[in-house]
Amino acid sequence: MDKQYLQHLIDTLTEKDNLKLCREEAKSYYKSHIVAECFDTAIDLYTSEHFQIQDVAVFLLGYIAAERADALSFLKETVSIHPNWKVQEVLAMAFDAYCKANGYEKSVPIMWEWINNDNANTRRAVTEGLRIWTSRPYFKDYPEKAIEIIASLKDDESEYVRKSVGNSLRDISKKFPDLVRTELLNWDLSSKQITQVYRLAGKLVLQ
User: Fold this and answer.
1) What CATH number does the domain containing 170 carry?
2) Residue 82 within a domain
3) Taking the model in full, what pTM does it have?
4) Which of 35, 56, 88 is the endpoint of a domain?
5) Looking at the domain assignment, is residue 184 inside a domain?
6) Is residue 141 scored above 90 in pLDDT?
């Protein structure tokens, strides 16, 4: 990796906590380098001690993941176990960047793969990354598909994931209240976990 570029990132980012700047740095690098260089640089940057530079790496991997399966795998298997919650927020954004580049409809099987993963961060990257789901292509026309995917995690063992599920469904209820209401009314509320999501998701559509 170019040491001058690394120093530029250190000088530009490490005294700040600015996600927009990290995204801009990643996008600029992606636009000016071939995919192979982007991958190698991202892997190197991810080893940095600075979370801001790691964020650049994760964004960069998201931009190339539709073209490199190993980039997507690195996001799912390695980034998802990073202990910093800020990096996990970027993982969600990187997953959305992958879906956008790959095509949202085409990415549905990968969404199912990720939400069936054992790692809560991997599952949440899907529900949180695509918010607001119905502002995305495909799901804008087929909101019921978004609801089906999100609602599959309504009884997730992780409260962290369940909150994302509830918030995502509540987002959708603003435009599609009847669809979300119908979904919620079919839930078995004998589960404490499901009831928690039910209340959060139904704030705007249930009395």
Assistant:
1) 1.25.40.290
2) yes
3) 0.96
4) 88
5) yes
6) yes
- Torsion over CA: 98, 124, 119, 53 (sign): positive
| Cα dist from 167 to 57, 136, 139, 196, whole Å | 27, 16, 16, 11
- Cα 50 from Cα 47, distance rounded (Å): 9
Give the orientation angle of helix 3-13 with respect to helix 35-46, to 10 degrees: 60
DSSP string, 9-40: HHHHHTT---HHHHHHHHHHHHHHS-HHHHHH
Q: What is the pLDDT of residues 15-24, one digit of tens each?
A: 888 999 999 9
DSSP designation for 142: -
pLDDT in tens, 83-94: 999 999 999 999
| Mean pLDDT rounded to a whole number for the chain | 97
